[in-house]
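FORM 7B - TANDEM STRUCTURE REPORT

SECTION 1: FIRST PROTEIN
SEQUENCE AND TOKENS:
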Amino acid sequence: MISADVVIQTQFYDLDPMQVVWHGNYPRFLEQARCALLDRIGYNYPQMQASGHVWPIVDMRIKYVRPIRFGDAITVTASLAEFENRLKIDYRIRDNAGQVLTKAQTIQVAVLAASGEMLLESPAVLTEKIKAAL
């Protein structure tokens, strides 16, 4: 399947009072990797909007395995897991040694922008772009 990596250097403003990355910042890290993956497919948010669809996240799961600390360079990998009826993306956050720090998953569904109707299968524009990217 298709995947993309981003490298992020954690900053002081990412930390909580316990000097580890605050749990609420992880979705931001996932978003950066998700956008890199969508760019690789050629169907990022501007292309989604141009196709008349929005793709809200309806489920997000995060498993915090090990803490991320100030100054850590992390690699966030987003991998396309499903696309026929929804966009399911799996994530792994690793340190420089390749050790898994976090596992996550998001699910997005296609919604017609004009009517707000949720689609039960992914629109052809997405499946065509994924097949072209394979």
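SECTION 2: SECOND PROTEIN
SEQUENCE AND TOKENS:
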Amino acid sequence: MAEEQSAPKQPMFALQRLYAKDISFESPNSPQVFQGEWKPQVNMDLNTENQQLSENQWEVVLTLTVTAKVNDKAAFIVEIQQAGVFLIEGLSPQQTAQTLGAFCPNILFPYARETIDSLVVKGSFPALMLQPVNFDAIYADAVRRQQAEAAPKH
């Protein structure tokens, strides 16, 4: 009698759903902000979060907040939570963490960037094409910081 051995699961990754979870646009100093020269200081903050929905499904949320100031007054503030549900199977815990922390945000970013640009233009501001973000480097830096914090102090 031959024993059946279950074959290891083949790695599987799929984007199952893509959606905007939250969107906000503010132009608190309009219309006065349109009166001066347009030389904004633009700042972007980003954050990613994930939660496991089932054994092999994860929600990843990329939050981007873009603030443009002219002469220290807010011209506009845009925030979006771009989210996706991803199927992830057959990866090691380390590979899963990297997929959630770097690969999934790389997929979500272009959608968030396009939405931000569209909202800014609808607010009567010049188009804002955000530069690409290196989520792999951000993830690697976060892992290094975690390891440094966890290392025993002498």
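SECTION 3: OBSERVATIONS ON SECOND PROTEIN
The chain has one domain: 12-146.
The chain has two helices and four strands.

SECTION 4: SIGNATURE
Preparer initials: ____
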